[in-house]
Amino acid sequence: MALFNFGKKKKEEKKITDCACGCSASETVNNSNDCCPEVKEGICCIKVLGAGCKSCHEQYENTKEAVKAMGLPVEVEYITDMQKVMTYGVMSMPAIVVNEKVVSMGKVLKPSKVEKLLRQLN
Q1: The whole model's pTM is what?
Q2: pLDDT tens digits for 50-63?
Q3: What is the Cα–Cα distance from 40 to 111, expressed in whole angstroms?
Q4: 26, 18 in Cβ contact below 8 A?
Q5: Cis ω on the peptide bond leading into residue 37 (within 30° of 0)?
Q6: Which of 31, 33, 36 is closest to 21 using CA atoms?
Q7: ω into residue 111 within 30 of 0, thus cis?
Q8: How far apart are CA 105 and CA 92, in angstroms?
Q9: Cα separation of 94 and 106, whole Å?
């Protein structure tokens, strides 16, 4: 006998990848939560998602440059594992993820543009 669940739709959850900031990123969180619940304001995690191509590597370097210029105590992570990339729902690369939220995808941002984006989020 087959059972079908036609009732309430489960709240959408996603499994986030390991986080460079050391937070409990291996836990399952709701899409509305940040990766670092203990951080109320500011940036705790920055990731560049890519396929390892020239454009993606350039975005990684530009992002690191922007973080350094801003003096943020955050390490930029470069993720090329396609299974991890797909958990973010990114279809165009490179992509930038801040606090487990995709903030840019499909274009290479210059360091000044990355800085401007990060200032808006910080």
Answers
A1: 0.72
A2: 999 999 999 999 99
A3: 26
A4: yes
A5: no
A6: 36
A7: no
A8: 6
A9: 5
